[in-house]
Amino acid sequence: AVVVGSGSGGGVAAAVLAAAGLDVLVLEKGGYHDDRDFGAGELDALTTLYAGAPALSAEGQFSSLMAGGTLGGGTVVNWSTSFATPEHVRAEWAAHGARQFAGDEFSRALDAVQRRLGVNTDHGRASSRDAILERGLTALGWHCEAMPRNVLGCDQGVECGRCGYGCRIGAKQSTVKTWLRDAAADGARIAVGVEVRRVIVERGRATGVEAIGPDGAPVTVAARAVVVAAGSLQTPPLLRRSGLRNERIGENLRLHPVTAVAGVFDEDVRPWEGGLQTRYSTEHADLDGAGYGVIYETGPASPGAITLFQPWQSAARHAADMRALRHTVQVGVIVRDAGSGRVTVGRDGEPVVRYRLGDHDAAHMQRGVVGAAEILAAAGARSVRSSHQNRVDAHLPGSLEGFAAAARREGYGPARCMMIALHIMGTAAMGGGRDTSATDPDGATWEVPNLIVADASCFPTPSGVNPMISIEAIAHMNASRLAARLT
Question: Which residues, at least 6 apart from 2, have a Cβ–Cβ distance to it below 8 Å?
Fold first, then answer.
């Protein structure tokens, strides 16, 4: 079996298939970087550990679509947040035709993944950011809970704050530390710097892949089955370049649009230090009665990262904001999007992303922006500002009515408010029919039964929470089904 990709999906699939006795080859486009390679700085990490931007960055809606681009994928650079798939989301996915999402099979996969990653709340010492988040939530009487994390021996201090650029002390249980190590122990081979361009399909069956090697030379690998886990931006173009025609491939792109509200405090926060994420709130996770809304989280704010939510307005304004950075907390607003976009293929064979935030989701984001400001105000901030291009701020103490009205007036269209997409999902969704889904309940493409998808592309709808555990559980389940058929 050939596995394309080595992140949350590919790493797990490789381990499951190798454990079943199959000869497994993992092909990863990115390079291999481990503990000793991390820590050279933000620019080095962003250019070596993250994937490049797609051809069209969602019609200007987002300043960045964040995806891992190294061995281990996003599991190397994510913020270690480890939520199991919520029950209402599992029911929603099952209703799309993959009924095992609501049953014991997926529960067993979730349990297996959480055990292997060592998910725990024992490394939940609140950073100064999260202490402020918790203080504000408690003052408002809103939900606040400890964050489950996949770390062992985390320092929960200086190094933890840098871990979004790779964990230098090896505490984060990425697929490199877990599943890929298991796969290698069972005989799997791993090749980095190999870009798969096409799955070879003959007489309706996948028989291997064609790729470009690290030296630019063509590479062909023969296989009995191919598992695609290239991520929700790259999986659809790969399937299209391989000749698949199902109209649902590339549709249903879901992104969890994220913006942030910054609060400036008198106290010394040092927001680049401390646990990546140790507290969260689902106070407004269901704003429409259908399970769609926002969740609140913080994240480490280093000088480069903070500019993702800090529009340029003037040199003087930027300098003042950066001088205040050590006193600043950004509360992230993560929207579970009800709308969707799509990924098509450009003339060069690369992904083209089209996505526009709909009115329904924009209303939820507005509520989240106001909610984040309320949290910061309740925690004692002396000022708050949103991420709108035209500055929206408020000096505190005082009313937030003007802030809310200005944010609503500025809106959330392209170039109006800075957003990023942290969680990219849904472009090869599993379901019960080829007219409504890109892959069947086994994760197999409808046209080629031994071509399996095992990444966030499989999500029928967005997870609503950080998706790593959900991706790994799907990969575990789909790979287990494939292994049963092959052995």
Answer: 24, 25, 27, 208, 209, 221, 223, 225, 226, 227
